[in-house]
Design brief:
520 residues, alpha/beta, Leucine-rich Repeat Variant, VC0802-like, Rossmann fold, seven-stranded mixed sheet
Length: 520
């Protein structure tokens, strides 16, 4: 059960140096309740702005904050507060919450009188995000005051960079529409770790020949980009620009610019400029300087670095003295996981869910009755319904927030043909069903989601002991967990459970294991 933090706890935690981070990243907290309490704190006492900024990185939380009629007046007042930090954070919040000319005027007025250098970049970026004619004119006319000594040089550089980004963001660029690929391209697909064989099998069924198969990726060569998205076991599709080239910025920029311009002109409607961002992976001593060098070599009237308004990602993966360079498209919507309107902190990646089920596919049956005893927002169940027709899909979770999210997702899924999913708020250790299920699939809670290792042991023991009340004889269970040593021990203590298959994987720095079991 997610905890609802009280106001005093929030205030006490915010007093710590990393308080906003502690609260925003705590998976045990109900983020909606945290947002609501912090919003009240901000409106009534002017504190908690840094936490609000962290929380509204989530689209759902941003929408919730935007719907509060009292938040914008409070944020506008923050622009003239005595605290420079509050003025800076208020500018950031305005950039997230509004697109009005009135707020552009407020930011412009504040910019002209703001004495603190470290506040000005946030004012500029917010102005760029709001955009419009007033914002563009103000940004074009604005010139940062040169530093008076060495102590101001860092803030001056930050202001110059913010001004550049704001000018790029404020311009209304032409939208480019993907037409089709003009030829066959090598495309690298990113799969869940150690589950790339499941993706390769899926692609083979779809008529694609996979090659360069590694632990978490493989490649295909195709001119039919849209058809790739009939596969569900990958998270990203990356066009290969080059591999094994020098990581020198001059080399990377020259190769990348040539490819981007030719590719976009051949595959998209609309004229330049094309907007991109840089994503850097690997060991680089000064990542900021490296990205800035690439940007300065690429940018011109045809290609523009616009990290807050991009349509292409230029991904550079550095290993040793060599690099691999990719292009990722954002002009084509990936609608494979259409049902995921709502998620929770512990939601399973849908590509991982699809690959985990594909691992167990030979043991799954048509028209099965399927239960997920810790269903979260329903990802595993929806992926099971998309894999093959099921007689029923039942999700159980002890957390009301999870069931609320799953039911919203179920309404969307039903409109796309997955009409048999239902969700029940209950403790699986007390849940009873009149009919047994054919399959039990579950992303088992672990770590902070349960509280402690002993909490996991109680839950896992209780769930396995209830298999005779949930599964028919010969039924299949697919379990995914970080507590694999514990689960393996508990399985071996129960003679009615047979391990059919296991596989280690990796997710977000963790190393879960998949178990496919038969209940005998």
């Amino acid at each position: 059960m997610l905890k609802k933090p009280d106001r005093e706890t929030i205030k006490t935690t915010l007093e710590k140096a990393n308080g906003p981070s502690l609260l925003a990243n705590d998976p045990r907290l109900d983020k909606f309740a945290l947002l609501d309490e912090t919003t009240k704190l901000f409106i009534e006492e002017g504190i908690g702005s840094a936490l609000l900024i962290r929380l509204i990185k989530s689209r759902n939380l941003l929408i919730r904050l935007s719907s509060n009629p009292d938040i914008l007046p409070a944020v506008r007042n923050g622009l003239s507060a005595d605290s420079p930090k509050l003025r800076r954070n208020s500018a950031r919040l305005i950039g997230q919450l509004t697109r009005s000319d009135e707020d552009a005027q407020l930011l412009i007025a504040r910019l002209h009188i703001e004495e603190q250098r470290y506040v000005r970049p946030s004012l500029l970026l917010a102005l760029g995000t709001i955009g419009g004619e007033q914002a563009q004119l103000a940004l074009d006319a604005y010139q940062p005051v040169p530093p008076i000594d060495v102590s101001e040089e860092k803030h001056y550089e930050e202001e110059l960079e913010a001004l550049r980004l704001a000018r790029v963001t404020a311009i209304k660029y032409e939208k480019h529409t993907f037409k089709r690929l003009d030829r066959a391209y090598e495309i690298e697909l990113i799969a869940p770790d150690r589950l790339s064989e499941q993706l390769a099998s899926e692609l083979d069924d779809l008529g694609f020949d996979a090659f360069n198969i590694h632990r978490s990726s493989l490649s295909v060569k195709t001119s039919d980009y849209s058809a790739l998205f009939n596969a569900r076991c990958f998270s990203e599709a990356l066009f290969l620009i080059s591999r094994g080239v020098s990581e020198n910025p001059d080399t990377v920029a020259e190769i990348s610019k040539k490819f981007i311009l030719k590719f976009m002109q051949a595959t998209h409607e609309g004229k330049p400029p094309y907007r991109y961002r840089i994503e850097l992976e690997g060991e680089i001593a000064d990542r900021t300087a490296y990205k800035r060098a690439i940007r300065n070599l690429i940018d011109d009237e045809t290609i523009v670095n616009a990290p807050s308004n991009y349509e292409i990602e230029l991904r550079i993966v550095v290993a040793g003295n060599a690099s691999r360079i990719y292009l990722k498209l954002y002009t084509v919507n990936d609608e494979r996981f259409f049902y995921r309107k709502e998620t929770i902190a512990a939601s399973m990646n849908p590509a991982t869910a699809a690959a985990v089920l594909r691992l167990a596919e030979e043991y799954l049956t048509l028209n099965a009755r399927v239960i997920d005893p810790c269903c979260g927002c329903g990802t595993l169940l929806f992926e099971r319904g998309l894999m093959a027709p099921c007689a029923s899909l039942t999700g159980v979770d002890i957390a009301h927030t999870a069931i609320d999210a799953a039911r919203i997702n179920a309404d969307i899924a039903a409109r796309h043909g997955i009409k048999q999913a239902k969700f029940i708020c209950n403790d699986i250790l007390r849940f009873e069903s009149k009919r047994l299920y054919d399959e039990l699939i579950c992303n088992l809670p672990f770590g902070n989601r349960v509280g402690t290792h002993s909490g996991c042991e109680r839950l896992y023991t209780g769930l396995l002991d209830r298999f005779p009340l949930l599964l028919r004889r010969g039924g299949i269970a697919v379990l995914y967990t970080m507590e694999f040593t514990l689960l393996k021990k508990l399985i071996r203590e129960r003679s009615y459970l047979e391990i059919l298959k296991t596989e280690r994987t990796e997710a977000g720095g963790l190393t879960p294991m998949v178990f496919v079991l038969r209940f005998n």
